[in-house]
Amino acid sequence: VQLVESGGGLVQPGGSLRLSCVASGFTFSSYLMSWYRQAPGKERELVASIPGIGPFTTYADPVKGRFTISRDNAKNSVYLQMNSLRTEDTAVYYCSASRIATHWGQGTLVPVSS
């Protein structure tokens, strides 16, 4: 199982960023895909999840209305569109794949700062 995130980088408050995660080594459409984040000095927290099939996405309260998770099963990819970014969104963002076990990517850093 391999998950490779990309798209992180410095962004100003109010800006937008789109994270991507490309998966390999498993049947992508059978897995729940999620984005987590870990801010400095804090525990890792769930940001958003999307099941293999169906529109049943879930979001953490702090990102509702600003972030959108989506996936393309044909490309074995999951995305996180982040709009109206805030300084408190600064974190390392991780892609995860869950079925029986959970697999993690290496993370991509998103600093939100002016």
Task: Summarize the SSE layout with pairings.
Layout: E1 2-6, E2 17-24, E3 32-38, E4 45-50, E5 58-59, E6 67-72, E7 77-82, E8 91-98, E9 102-104, E10 108-110
Antiparallel strand pairs: 1-2, 2-7, 3-4, 3-8, 4-5, 6-7, 8-9, 8-10
Q: What does this 3D model show about the protein?
A:
- Helix content is about 0%, strand content about 45%.
- The protein contains no helices and ten strands.
- The chain has strands at about 1-5, 15-25, 30-40, 45-50, 60, 65-70, 75-80, 90-100, 100-105, 110.
- Strands 3, 4, 5, 8, 9 and 10 form a six-stranded antiparallel beta sheet that branches.
- The mean pLDDT is about 95.
Please supply descriptive tags for the structure shown above.
114 residues; mainly beta; six-stranded antiparallel beta sheet
- Count the strands? 10
Shape: globular
Largest sheet: 6 strands, antiparallel
Distance between the termini: 37 Å
Task: Report the C-alpha radius of gyration, rounded.
Answer: 13 Å
Number of helices: 0
Helix content: under 10%
Task: Work out the strand percent.
Answer: over 45%
In short:
The protein is mainly beta and 114 residues long.
